[in-house]
Design a protein that fits this description.
Elements lengths: L22 H16 L8 H10 L5 E5 L3 H7 L4 E6 L2 H13 L5 E5 L26 E6 L4 H8 L3 E10 L24 H10 L3 E6 L4 E6 L14 E4 L6 E3 L3
Length: 251
């Protein structure tokens, strides 16, 4: 299998400056670098999230992603259909070429330029791509690009019950007990008012929060409408680098 060559500016390990080099972080970063070297075609999600998605995704699934790259190729080889949104013209051209090279024709790939400041992302063509998706039509959606708060907000109703919302770098936007750099604490709360809205909606979803120690990826599973025969959902799952996930309830 060929390797997807990418500009280093798109690699998460180099995307933000390191402000505190603790022994734990140095170890985790080295482990992540070794994983990426051994799995050059995997998406830029935590290794634990990739393992989970490998087992959860089905060939009949239909999904969406806001932010394209390795994930576009990875999803396209595993699911029936993918809607992908990208804001960078050169990156869109590069990934389009790779899709063509591999004969992957199940991706509806949209270029939506950055046309609004971040605080007005709700008016952006990028985030509003979600409006063109049918309610309850998606088995999964990945939030990993521009205007993440609005992309997540607009995508929530598009996910079917039992479907997944995947948020990469989730520790930058939603509060947790994560030890990864730049994580938001419960005291600080969600990063924006829109993220607060998203967090309130996700409070009733089962979640699997994974961390590489460098960044975090969370998988949220949409519950079925509550009825008299609906079982209550159990505790959230926190998956780290250990082989077995730990169970806890959200703080």
């Amino acid at each position: 299998m060929s390797t997807l060559l990418v500009p280093t500016s798109r690699v998460p390990l180099r995307s933000r400056p390191v402000r505190h080099l603790t022994p734990r972080y140095v170890r985790d970063r080295a482990r992540q670098a070794l994983y990426e070297r051994a799995h050059p075609n995997d998406p830029w999600l935590t290794p634990a999230a990739i393992r989970l998605l490998t087992s959860l995704l089905r060939p009949t699934d239909r999904g969406a992603e806001f932010g394209s790259g390795r994930s576009t190729l990875w999803f396209a080889t595993r699911v029936a259909a993918l809607t992908s949104v990208e804001h960078d013209p050169s990156w869109h051209e590069a990934i389009s070429a790779r899709l063509l090279e591999r004969g992957l024709r199940n991706v509806d790939y949209t270029l939506a330029l950055e046309d609004q400041p971040m605080e007005r992302g709700g008016d952006s063509a990028y985030a509003r791509v979600a409006y063109g998706l049918g309610d309850g039509s998606l088995d999964f959606a990945l939030i990993d690009g521009h205007y993440r708060d609005y992309s997540a907000k607009f995508t929530l109703p598009k996910i079917r019950p039992g479907g997944m919302l995947i948020i990469d770098n989730v520790n930058w936007y939603l509060p947790s007990q994560s030890k990864s750099p730049h994580s938001r604490t419960p005291v600080r709360g969600p990063k924006t008012a829109v993220w607060s809205e998203v967090a309130a909606e996700l409070a009733s979803w089962r979640s699997i929060w994974t961390s590489s120690g460098v960044w975090d990826t969370a998988i949220y599973i949409k519950p079925a409408p509550i009825g008299p025969d609906t079982a209550l959902f159990g505790p959230d799952i926190v998956a780290d680098q250990m082989p077995t996930a730990r169970l806890r309830r959200s703080p």
